[in-house]
Structures are given as structure tokens and as C-alpha cells.
Amino acid sequence: MFKLQYLVVRLIATLACISFCIGANVSYDSNAIIINGERHIIFSGSIHYPRSTVQMWPDLIKKAKDGGLDTIETYIFWDRHEPQQRKYDFSGNLDFIKFFKLIQEAGLYAIMRIGPYVCAEWNYGGFPMWLHNMPGIQLRTDNQVYKNEMQIFTTKIVDMCKQAKLFAPQGGPIILAQIENEYGNVMEPYGNAGKTYINWCAQMAESLNIGVPWIMCQQSDAPQPIINTCNGFYCENFTPNNPNSPKMFTENWLGWFKKWGEKDPYRTAEDVAFSVARFFQVGGVLNNYYMYHGGTNFGRTSGGPFITTSYDYNAPLDEYGNLNQPKWGHLKQLHASIKLGEKLLTTGTRSNKNYSDFVTLTKFSNQATGERFCFLSNTNVSNDATIDLQVDGKYIVPAWSVSILDGCNKEIYNTAKVNSQISMFVKEKNEKENEQLSWSWVAEPMRDTLQGKGTFKANHLLEQKGTTVDGSDYLWYMTNVESNATSSLQNITLQVNTKGHVLHAFINSRYIGSQWRSDGQSFVFEKPILLKSGTNTLTLLSATVGLKNYDAFYDTIPTGIEGGPIYLMGDGKVAADLSYNTWSYKVGLNGEMEQFYNPLLTQKIKWDALNKISIGRRMTWYKTSFKTPSGTDPVVLDMQGMGKGHAWVNGLSIGRFWPSLIVGNDGCNSTCDYRGAYDSKKCAGNCGNPTQRWYHVPRSFLSNDTNTLILFEEIGGNPQQVSIQTIALRTICGNANEGSTLEVSCQGSDIISGIQFASYGDPKGQCSSFMKGSLDVGNVSTLVKKACIGMKNCSIEVNTKSFGSDNITNSSPRLAVQAICSKN
């Protein structure tokens, strides 16, 4: 049996290789992507290799393929690959060559978006900070210094791909490549230099001779033969600038990113499916989901300012790689339904018939064979539509939905009718040895900076990102203030105008206060200070929380206390202007430079046992150890009780934390109406809670036994509340319509251990709150238990015959099931 399975696997791999390894010609017309003469529509999904781990890649790719994708898309992240000029890093989860090869081994295509500007809510838009400090440089415009660097990096990436034979004509998976990114959105302020630049980008890209088409998203004037494409929540109204170009949706935003202090964005499965179906109804050829797996902003990679560590994006694969149901399953069924019509969508004649201002029937047909495939859409935001297609049947099309009709006479899918499983995950403390963590602590060494001792000086206030070269979130500003008992510097208020994101202030080694704005923008810090007679040392610590990643000239927007001004105010007047004092500077924390986070070096540090004095301290390092949780469920840190800082497990950064930043109590929705145009404020949640409480610890970061967790706490917190948890799927629900199949599945090796609810008829409510309606077939629970108990997954055909109820009177009965998953 094993030998047979092995041979089958080898055969599948061989067939996959044949389709790739011999090389493929990639071309296009207005109706298809053409690969080796075969006409395709493409379903793609964004998975960014640095936002997960090498160990996660195969599972993410497999789940994407199982979800009906043909293609995986990713940016290439310049700042991570060239952190110092001409010093490259392609190791670990930066090994994009390996990532593309795994995509190919799975039998999928790939889209490479070099940019090399990526936006992506990524720190500084993906540009390495050394670019910022190059003399005479201007980013993303007709500037020779910048263009030289951009061309060098782009050429290096292309050459690496050629050497690895990754482009389709070489037998590789890459069928499309992107140059630049969303430039058209910000191009106008650059004037003629912007237009010249975009033409240069196109010429430079074409000169690299990669053998596959180049694309530019959000670039209506993309020079030929570059294909311009669309990004957004909806792209059905987009038209390429060349009638021979395919209509491509390169970023269908499946959700939205989250910022510290803001609510959780949520976009329904129904609305995403509606957007996709409408796009293909009007002649779309390629749809790429942004993101299909959002993942995690490890280290200091999140942009912003104020982008969270989690980049979950409400994607079909959640931050940890779990199936986000029902979105994953609902889209899987959509892909399968549309693929049934692929031949007609790419070769047939398209015609429309409007039944009202909102209802349109689009027919793709082959007159020679009589084959037909139809989309029936209703864009009304509140009213359902009943449409009589005569011999092809009568159809009820819910508001804001699209029905897909195979043969134009059989509904096989409707975007508003979700038949996919709903999964409800829980966080569990499942290891007794991790119940009470034993903590130790050490203060951040600050004697030097509190005494005004830096590593270099300047007679003005420096810009932060250019000074730190993004080597740390922190920059110290220090100066001396002279005072005597008779001077005017009494009853003084310190006023600091800062463009930094967070500010901490000290006078004569005494803490004065801290401040930040909820949106990460500029603010004015004001606190009364007490000056002693003689020399006073003023110490300011400016902290960034992700550098700006988007907008015209975003790279020129300063951070830190650049220029100030910094005043000492007395009686409402400026008593002293300190802006042009001699300032001493130091980049970063001493604990960072001495690698307090590295468990191999922590033995040299004197860590004290946690006590009352050490709880709630600012600028403090905490250390503990924990056992690796058993099983395969994702591991998270519950950071409840902590303030703001950075976390490492076994020396590997899991990102910034800020659980003390609480979301406002207004504007959240207990229910979400999918009908009507979506924006990032619609259907928001998590009001009154920490912006982000749980932080992903990839299992590849963990040892086989004991692990070291180290936290740097910036503003004060209590590590005793921190816990190690796993994410488990415990409740699963199915809610399937007549004529469909209800499928429910547990995670990993867990099995269905109980049925909490089962009803066929007109059940009410939703998962976790189902109730029987006025119509209920009595033996359903017994039948569902027989089919599902003890199984990892089960499927049930939803029809009256299955439940012995041929005389049921409800015209559209449904089956609702709620089950419990437990460890096998």
C-alpha cells in the first residue's frame, strides 16, 4: 500500500514537473493569460515570505492550492535583502528562491512583484535606510542616484531568478513580474519627473529580458508593453489602457491592516466573493487576493507609523496559518464554480442583458457548440431580485450578490449564500509547567545617557531615521542647561515639539514624563521641570513605531525631534530656546547593543528575582523560561498586563508589543451587513480591548524542551500576567442550503467529539447561538452524530431525501450543525 502511494506521489510530481520543467511561453490577450497555448483565468493569493517562516511555507502553499488558487504572489523586500549597501541577506525566511521553488513543487505559478518599493505597510515602504542618506538622492522620481541603486537591486533579483531558472520560459513558476508599485496614486506631485521616471522604469524592466510580461498596478499611463492593473476592494469598473491587455485585479483587499489604538477591520466572505464574481462577470482575467495569508511583522518590520505586529489582514489563512472559515471555504467554492466556465470565459462571446438598473445577466457562449456560462448579478444594496429566465428557470438573487449559472440554467453558486464551515478558535493554557512563569529582571542601563554622555554631538536637533539609519527605534537627545538662583529659569515648563512617535523626558536623571499621540503624528510635549542652580542635564528619548511607508515624498517626512523647537517656558513666554544648543546623541539602548535579548549572552548579566519594585518599572528587561507546548497547535504569548516594548523568544524577535493601548469603545458592530460597498471602517470590532493582546511565536522558534522569553518594557508593565497559550479549534459550525453539501472539519489530529446542535428546516441564529425554527426534522441530530462523531471531518448531502423528509414544505430548507472538536 505504501509503495503504491509513493508511486502515485511520484507520478503527480512528474506530471507537475512536465508542465513546468520544459519551459512555458507566457502571453496574453484581452480575455486570457496564455501559457503554452492554453488559455487561463488566474486565481492568485499574496503570501509574503518574510511574514512567516520557512517551516510554515509548505503548509501555507498547500492550503492556498487546496483553496483553489493557481498562483502565489509576493513582493521582494529590498530592505531585508540589502540592509547595508552591497551586503546581501537571502538566508532563512528571506530565501525567496526557495519560496518560489516550493511554489513550483506544489504545481502552482508565481507572480513576483519586485517594486522595489513595496508599500505593504512595511517599514519605510521596503526601502533600505541607507538610501535615505545618500548624497543627492530623491526616491521614486527621475533621480540618477536613486535609479542607479534601483536598477542594481532589480537586476540582482532578476539575475538570481534566472540562475535558479525560475521564469516560466526556463521551466520555472514565475509567469508575471511587477516593476514599481501603486505609483499612479502619488505621481502628480512629482510632476514631469514622475512621468519620466515611470517611462524609465518600464524601459529598464523590459531590458532585463525575463521572458514573461511585466505589470504596473495603479498606473493608468503604464508605457507599453507594460500591463496596467487595478488594486482596491472592487475593480469591475477598471479598464486597461490597451484594449489587448488582460483585465487584472492585482490586489483584491480581503480585509485591512490594523494600527495601534484602532479597531479590528473585518470584511465578510460574502462581499469578497461578490467583488470577485463581479470582476469575472465583466471580463476579468486575473484576481489576486491581498492578503491570502497576512502573517506577522517580526522584528521592527511593521511600517506606518503605528502598524501593529500582527498583519492578519482578515485573510483566508489567518496569522498563524489556520483556515479562516468561512472565508477560505466560501472562496474555494467560488473558484471551483468559476473554473467550470474557464473555457467559455477565455474564448466565448460575452453579452449582457439588463433586467433593471441593478440586475444584469452576463452570458459567455460558444455559438458553434451551444455551450453557455452565466453570471446573474444584483447590485442593489437592500432588495432581493426574482428573475425569470424562462426555459432556463427562475432565480432569486439576494441583494448585493452574484449567482453563477452553469449552462446558464443551473445555479451552482451564489456569493451571498455561505455553505462553508465556521471555525471558532480559542486560546488555551494547556501546560501545567507554564501556568506560573518565574521571572527575573534587570534595569536598562541608562547612567550614561541620563548624565548626558552620548557618542557624537551636533549644534542642532537631528532627524531621527537618518541618524539611526533604522538601527533602532530609539534615539537619545541630551544637552545641558545652566541656571542659578537668581536667573529667570525658575517655575519653568519644558516644551518639546517633536515629530517622533513617542517621547520620554528626564531632567538631572529624574523622569519627567512620557507622551505620544494615538495616530503616531507630531505632538507637543509640555511638563513643568525643576532646575537646580548650576548645570542641569536634559535627556530626551525619542522612539519610533514603524516608519512611514506611503505617500508622495513620504521619505522626506522627518521623524524625531528634528528642528524642534525645544523651549523652556516661563509665564507663558520663551525663557530659553534650546534648539541650537550643543546636543549629544546616542543611537539605541545599551541593552540592545549588549544583546540582553540573546539567551547565549544573558548569563553575563546579573538578573534579579522579580519583586514589587521591579513591577511597573519603565525601561526594564524581563526574563523567564517556559516549556514548549505539546502538539502542533500555534503558540502565542498573551501579553496582557504589559505596557509597550519588544519581545524575543530564544533570541528571535516576535515583534513590538503594546497591549496597554486600548481601542475606543465606539463604532464597533455586533453584526455585519455584507450588503453595500465596503471600506476599512465598516464592520469593525474589538472595541474596549487591547489593540493586540496575543503575539505569534512560530513553532520553529521553539526548542524541543525549554525556551527563553525576554521582554523589553518601555513604559511599565506586569510580566506576571504574561502567559504561554496555544490556539485550538474547539467549535465548528456548518450552515448549508438545500442542494449543497455541509462539510465540517477539525484541525490536525483532533476529532469531532460531540454535536451540540443539529436542525434541518428553518433553524435560527448563528454559530454559538443556534435555535430551532418552526420547522425541524426530528431525526437529524441522530443522523449527524452517526456521520460525524469520531471523525476528523465529515460531509452531509443537504436534501430532503437524506433526512427522509420528502414532504417538507419549506421551499428552501437549511441544515445547521454545531460540533465540538477534541484531541484524539
Can you walk through the features of this model?
Helix 8 runs parallel beside helix 9. It is built from 14 helices and 42 strands. The strands form nine sheets. It has an eight-stranded parallel barrel, surrounded by four helices. Strands 19, 33, 36, 38, 40 and 42 form a six-stranded antiparallel beta sheet that branches. Residues 1-19 have low confidence and may be disordered. It has 824 residues and is α+β, with helices and mostly antiparallel strands. A hairpin with a 2-residue loop joins strand 1 (26-29) and strand 2 (32-35). The relative contact order is 0.10. It folds into four domains: 2-324, Glycosidases (TIM Barrel); 428-443 and 592-724, Jelly Rolls (Sandwich), CATH 2.60.120; 447-588, Galactose-binding domain-like (Jelly Rolls, Sandwich); 738-822, Sandwich (Jelly Rolls), CATH 2.60.120.740.
Features:
single chain, 824 residues, alpha+beta, TIM Barrel, Jelly Rolls, eight-stranded parallel beta barrel, six-stranded antiparallel beta sheet, 42 strands, 17% helix, disordered N terminus
